[in-house]
Amino acid sequence: MSEKILIVEDEFIVANDLRLMLERAGYLVCGIANSVPAAQALLQLHHPRLVLLDIYLKGAQTGIDLAYQLADEGIAFVYLSANSNQGVLEAAKATQPYGFLVKPFREKDVLVTLEIARYRLEHSLEARLQQEARLQAQLLELKNEASTWEETLGSMARILQHALPFDYLVVTLDRPQASRWSSLLRIGFDQYQMLDARALSTISGRSEADLQTLYTQMPAEAQSGWHNGDAFAELRQTQPLQQFLATTFDVAARLYVPLPLPNGAFRLAFYSRTPDTYTASHVALLNRLRPALLAHVTGETPAPAVPVPLPRPAASRFDGIIGRSHRLLQVLDQVAQVAPFDTSVLILGESGTGKEKIARALHDLSPRKSQPLVKVNCGALPASLIESELFGHEKGAFTGAIARRVGKFEQARGGTIFLDEIGEMPLDMQVKLLRVLQEKEIERIGGQAPISVDVRIVAATNRHLEKEVAEGRFRLDLYYRLNVFPVTLPPLRERKEDIPALAHHFAAQVTAKIRKPFPGIAEPMLTALTAYDWPGNIRELENILEQAVILNDGHTPLTLPRPLGHPRVAPSVSTPAALPAVKTLDDVKKLQDDTEREYITSVLRQTHGRIRGAGGAAELLNLKPTTLESRMARLGIAKHQP
Ligand SMILES: Nc1ncnc2c1ncn2[C@@H]1O[C@H](COP(=O)(O)OP(=O)(O)OP(=O)(O)O)[C@@H](O)[C@H]1O
């Protein structure tokens, strides 16, 4: 093996124990450092690929300070820590370590954690190199496309976005005769709006001349650099352009890279609304891409006088995923980034945030898209069935195994398996799953020989997996294997700007399904939807819209079917997927009437038959009492009973 490893630990006895342990396992320990400067010197000398890193060290700097440097240099690191407080753990976690070992450690845990770290390093390195090669090729291709300066910039933005996130980009081309600048605002996945001084003036209310001055009189910085969060807030105090961009586009971080040309420079300034977006690795990436980025600069054509919206790519890569909030776009960027590779992906997020939808998008964007995507709901399977469900069984393997059964892993061969609710998987199955991940082989129950399977694993959970690990319900080694590429879906309350588009989407979907006109959504309903916190996330929103459509008369805009946050009073209204087969218009009408009758009856049951007044059924249903009464008459609901 002879993998080089550095130990950064200030307790000599601990460090020495580790050294012996690692050497026994075949690692090459290239040194022991007890402080950050000592570690930096050894890093320069030996270039190890792995570092075991204590948090508290001799001197002022901690292991967390060193971790940022290690991450930038692509060196895998595993923290060694005694039980630290929550704040320190949070700070350590933010550096995205490859593993965590809590003192005192068992030899087995150290070796397993290091093995996982190596696996993750190889996979992330491989993925990074492949991604860079792809970026280079795509940027170089731009040179061959005959297009305007605007189109070239738009394509460049699209190519860079997934490796280098931004919400706004300013590109300046300095030439001895003149300088020119262009700017792009991200308005959707793969969609950008070109903004020149005139467009910016419309948005901000400042004069065009003013803006021209602001953009052109920025001192040209010679050095690359980035300002995140507080550092950007400080920069705003001294640079009026940054102040303008922060207030106009709500940006909170900036990355700046000047790329020198033989006579001039090509300058890129990326801005993000997420305060901690940029790192040295982004600067390094842009410098590596420099030849490809500059290749098209010389082939520019003059800009048209009027700003043009950039053309939309023919088909969005995320059809059916509604929303363009900054938080959702970040997730889609990650998905686009990881989709082409075989890397395992762990999708995290509260219930109903769209984890399954993202898993499908991931599969559809991958080279496996023409092969099956097989879903397994680990939470819904009894422990006794899960093994046979996943791996299959041979005829006669156990009582009741009357025929051979092919498991989900085999069904997914060449494709993707989506392990939903992975946090619910029993511990003994977790061991077997780990084996599949390591060996890429499964064994049918009662089978004679292992069967090799080429399957990409996408798992999802709404549980806090680290807590599950801490409480002994989830294996640490499996967690690290699955957590190679985590994607976290934000809850709906953190991206409220997506609510109106989602509401329209669901209403249109249900009306089309039950062939009812869609008269739009009333403004007060939209306001209430946006104000609400959505504990059930998108699924809850979808249900509300479905109920609103069913109760709607087909002419007046949709109104809330019940006060939001009010517990559902009707027996569950079926989701569109579960609607019975609807073949004729009469079926549609009957279905609508049945659902409406059921719903109104259950509300009346809750109000003990009271229609009018505060807390009455009419108020709960957001209807006029007279409207409710006439609906009840039509549906044959007696007033006094339900
Ligand atoms: N961005 C989106 N655009 C349109 N529909 C969405 C979006 N996100 C989720 N949905 C819809 O919301 C519903 C819930 O999504 P999904 O089942 O993917 O959530 P989940 O996080 O997997 O839920 P759970 O944790 O309960 O399994 C589905 O009907 C899905 O189609």
UniProtKB/TrEMBL annotation:
Pfam families: AAA_lid_14, Response_reg, Sigma54_activat
Presence of the UniProt keyword Transcription in the record: yes
Gene3D superfamilies according to UniProt: 1.10.8.60, 3.40.50.2300, Homeodomain-like (1.10.10.60), P-loop containing nucleotide triphosphate hydrolases (3.40.50.300)
One term of GO molecular function: ATP binding
Highest rank taxon of the organism: Bacteria
InterPro entries recorded: AAA+_ATPase (IPR003593), AAA_lid_NorR (IPR058031), CheY-like_superfamily (IPR011006), P-loop_NTPase (IPR027417), Sig_transdc_resp-reg_receiver (IPR001789), Sigma_54_int (IPR002078), Sigma_54_int_dom_ATP-bd_1 (IPR025662), Sigma_54_int_dom_CS (IPR025944)
Coiled coil: 125-152
Modified-residue entries (4-aspartylphosphate), positions: D54
GO biological process entries: phosphorelay signal transduction system; regulation of DNA-templated transcription
Boundaries of every Response regulatory domain copy: 4-118
Keyword Coiled coil: yes
Domain Sigma-54 factor interaction residues, every copy: 321-550
Sorted UniProt keywords: ATP-binding, Coiled coil, DNA-binding, Nucleotide-binding, Phosphoprotein, Transcription, Transcription regulation
PANTHER family tied to this protein: PTS-DEPENDENT DIHYDROXYACETONE KINASE OPERON REGULATORY PROTEIN-RELATED, TRANSCRIPTIONAL REGULATORY PROTEIN
Protein name: Regulatory protein, Fis family
